[in-house]
Amino acid sequence: MAEREQIKKQPSRTETETETEEAAPASTEKGDKLKAELDDLLDEIDEVLDENAEEFVRAYVQKGGQ
Amino acid sequence: MAIVKVLGLETEYGIIIRGSSDPNPIAASSALINAYVAELARRVAWDFEDETPGKDARGFAREGSMPPEVETHLVNAVLTNGARYYVDHAHPEYSTPECANAMDAVRFDKAGERILARSVVAASRILPPGQSIVVLKNNSDGKGNSYGTHENYLMDRSVPFARIVQRVIPHFVSRQVFTGAGKVGTEASSTLGMEVTFQLTQRADFFEEEVGLETTLKRPIVNTRDEPHCDAQKYRRLHVIVGDANLSEVSTFLKVGTTALVLSMIEDDWFSRAGDRDLTLADPVIAMRRVSYDLSLTRALELADGRTMTALDMQWEHLDLARKYAEDRGLESVGGDEIGHEILRRWEHVLGALESDPMSLATTLDWVAKYRVINGYRERHGLSWRDPKLAAMDLQYHDVRPEKSLYERLGMERLLTEESVLAAMSEPPTTTRAYFRGKCLERWGSQVAAANWDSLVFDLGTDPLRRVPMMEPLRGTAAHVDALLQGCESPAELLARLGN
To answer: Which of A13, A44, A64 sits opposite B89 (nearest CB)?
Structure first.
């Protein structure tokens, strides 16, 4: 299924973004690709997340701000 | 004709010491800044074999004749990039130098993040074992306490303030669709009957008035602080407290770029001239939250004249007006054609994408990026939106340490090279008076007794101290003073040639 550029009010796109109209198979492809990217990201992020996240959230208090 | 929208960003960073039984944010903020300044001084000594600690950057007391600020006794450094780095209330704060366009504002704001990150490393070397400092570029602790990111724009004093208030509020309310840094949950007492699991902005929960002087309580959408830091007869500095701290370069660029354009239009009374398109909201304070809570971007807001519009439609109206303004009046006030058209182009792109497929902006805008990763994590692990892990991810998005920052993992679009950001940590912008300030500090830091936004005070070792006023934000640029500075061996010579 051919992809076509989405042009409505969108004069430009960066390379990293995908741009397809709502043609169903393309949309699924796009959805799968985005989901795969997100899965990779979430795998990676599990390693970065703070071990003591809950304790950090509890202790994080900021008074006196503007 | 609208004057050039000289602009700058001030950011109060969140700070916490881990591993301390008695954490003190003021002490931590001071340690952070002192550690950074000391490291710079060491490096200068090493680079130039010159025993002048404080040449590159140093703490300054404000001069006695200037209106004192409340925190005069706290750490206050002025850097060679023309920025101010200091302790404000209980936070480390970084104010960019004056910038003449939105791209420079992004550059110097991003340089501030790198300065904070380097400060964290420097401070870690002097903290007791087991302690560490975490610094976040965000605006809320998630418990009802907020701290600000303020924008500043130079305006013509002759523009009636009432006109600014009337015309800028609709922009401040509706621009949240691209300026938001995203937040899990809400801290407002009322959510207007909406269920808020995630919202577009950090700050919308905290605004209670339309107009006022306050910044720490009853925060107003339009702040009336009148302290221009330049010729007060000619200029006003519009102090904008309603925005979020952005990590996304595109979000920052659009936040200041579109606002500079809207303020230019207000200055030229363009809203009236273009066939009075009155976008006055029926209740702007409510509308702030209504926009922030609406992830669908489709909820209509009530206007004072009875019409209804979505925030996106309001932004399309602003863009339409701005395009006509650009054709008719040009783009000089926002930094010229190249940057002006870049603002218009990106504004249009972002509005179009928000309308058709917001998630396509997951590597462009902060709130979309944050939503995508946190919601993805939530779905993967079957968590409730109230799970503290998600609140922790929200905070960690803003961590200035590159190895900890979630933002840094997301492959976000950049407008600047990292090289130019790193250069901006020490090199001032070339097109405002910040150039003169930064270069004088770089060359003669040990003989600068005080550096303020609108003056430099030299101590030549003779009485009295010598002050150089800098009342014009667009004088003291590289074009104006580079030859002069190159031709002077000492500040005494500089002052003589300035006729001071």
So the answer is: A64
